[in-house]
Amino acid sequence: MNVGRCRWSRLLAFAALLLSWSCCARGEVQEQSKVIGGTTVIYDVVLPNGYDPAKTYPAVLAFPGGDQTYDMVQGTLERNWRLLGERLGYIIIVPEAPDGELFFEGGAKVFPEFLVKLLADYKILDNKFHIAGVSNGGLSAFKIASLYPQYFWSVTGLPGLLFDAAKPNYVQALSKMCIYMYAGSEDSGWLNSEKKQADLFRSKGYTVEFSEEKGEGHVMHTLDGEGAMRLFKQFEQARHGCAKQ
Asked: How far apart are CA 25 and CA 133, in angstroms?
């Protein structure tokens, strides 16, 4: 019997077992699609490290910026959401604009059915999401939050704001949510608009936090990677106290 060969075989088998455990413990990105009223919605889902489908997790629905294509989905996922979503135990969902229609425009037609289907697929804590977005995605987040507030703990724009603030019912719909707004100090148009809207929300007694990111433009790198910890801390804040029941 070749003792050395047997020992080497056992070591290889043990290493393979460790590798398989490691792969299973890591987070996972899944490309998914749903057909809603004849419209196909394509989206990426990030699952937490060690994801167990029998367990319940907090979740973030995040919208990409620009034309909200799949490239933009992947970009914001890697910049702002995946690293800490996996580590902190969040399910992250980032959809592509259906049929090329931005979510704060015609793409809103897939809601609330899209949310209902997500809740059927995943065990989401308290059946509520945190909703967020970058630029056009921020406009989308505020739009969908104002239309279906019962599904959300908080709304975050990085940057982003409520495009329909002239409509009192849309503004009122945000009253029970925690509102978080970010704008770069070099992005004067968005900065001034968000400041004005944050003041409007405060005047109505809403819970709103506004952050001017010094030295940043429209794309705020202070919220990339580990910098997104501020976003996740606010999500926890929203769920544990600032959101009104």
From this structure: 28
Q: Please tell me whether residue 62 adopts helix, strand or coil conformation.
A: strand
Give the CA count within 13 Å in the CB-facing half-sphere of 213. Answer: 23
Q: Residue 210 and residue 30: Cα distance in Å, rounded?
A: 33
Q: What sign results for the dihedral spanned by CA atoms 78, 80, 83, 86?
A: negative
144 and 173 Cβ atoms separated by less than 8 Å: no
Which among 170, 122, 130 has a CA at the least distance from the CA of 153? 130
Q: Coil, helix or strand for 162?
A: coil
Q: Is the peptide bond before 159 cis (omega within 30 degrees of 0)?
A: yes
Q: In a structure prediction context, what are the per-residue pLDDT tens digits for the chain, which is 245 residues long? A: 444 444 444 434 444 433 333 333 445 789 999 999 999 999 999 999 999 999 999 999 999 999 999 999 999 999 999 999 999 999 999 999 999 999 999 999 999 999 999 999 999 999 999 999 999 999 999 999 999 999 999 999 999 999 988 899 999 999 999 999 999 999 999 999 999 999 999 999 999 999 999 999 999 999 999 999 999 999 999 988 775 65
User: What is the value of pTM for the model shown?
Assistant: 0.88
Secondary structure of 181-215 in the HEC alphabet? Answer: EEEECCCHHHHHHHHHHHHHHHHCCCEEEEEEECC
Where do the structural domains in the chain lie, given as residue ranges? 28-242
CATH of domain 28-242: 3.40.50.1820
